[in-house]
Amino acid sequence: MSRERELIERTHEALGRPVTASNLAADLRALGVEEGMTLIVHTAMSAIGWVAGGAQAVVLALQRAVGESGTLVMPTHTGSRTDPSHWRNPPAPESWWEAIREEMPPFDPALTPVYLMGDVPETFRRMPGVRRSRHPHLSFAAWGRQAEAVLAGHGDDPERLGEALGDGSPIGRVYDLDGHVLLLGVGHINNTSLHLAEYRAKYGPKPVDNQAAPVLVDGRKRWAAYVDLEFDSDDFPAIGAGFELDTGLARVGKAGLATARLMPQRPLVDYATNWMERHRGENGRRV
Asked: Are the C-beta atoms of 38 and 178 separated by less than 8 Å?
């Protein structure tokens, strides 16, 4: 059985109708998404069911839910634009490294596709009115009233690419705007906002990662080196579950076939910061 046929049958059995932009927007409103919200979204397209119009319809539903006065934000990360010496899964043969470094195109926010993040953010970044930040590894795309404020300066300076998910990043700007997080068919392991807590939490010393990315500087490609945190999401499911249980601030429901979770980002990050300070010890190890 083809993947699409299986998805059609599963959707028909559960709903008796296809998922559409209209009924998905209605599901999101019932969950608590409101016009004017600043909303950072993580999605798994296959979890939503068979959608008439595919990823485009999902983006349209999200835009309708927040309205023209709202702001929609998605991570559009490009981990494939890293130095090949860092690749582990799978590794590249060392004999390839120089060729990859020489020939890999520089990051271009208009052209470089997202990497291993699914159809929805890839479709979103190309839609009219959507802007994208310039960080070569950890870019974000945004649409709506606060889009420019959310993306401002992120990755613009190739000499200052570190703290890519910190206070000066789109994640930090969503925090400042008292925004919300929507997990649509994914769990807290995908909840990028929790990385902001990794910067803020007092534990350590924190492991760091030496990175490099191909960027354009004055019209010429060069590899920009930078240092950032070595991110660790292994405890994100435990943090998310604790947040939901302890605060009751997450609203859980259905959007299409997907389990959807909507939560205010600021108390989530504050909770995660405190959790990490209690549970992460020396070098980030669990205690």
From this structure: yes
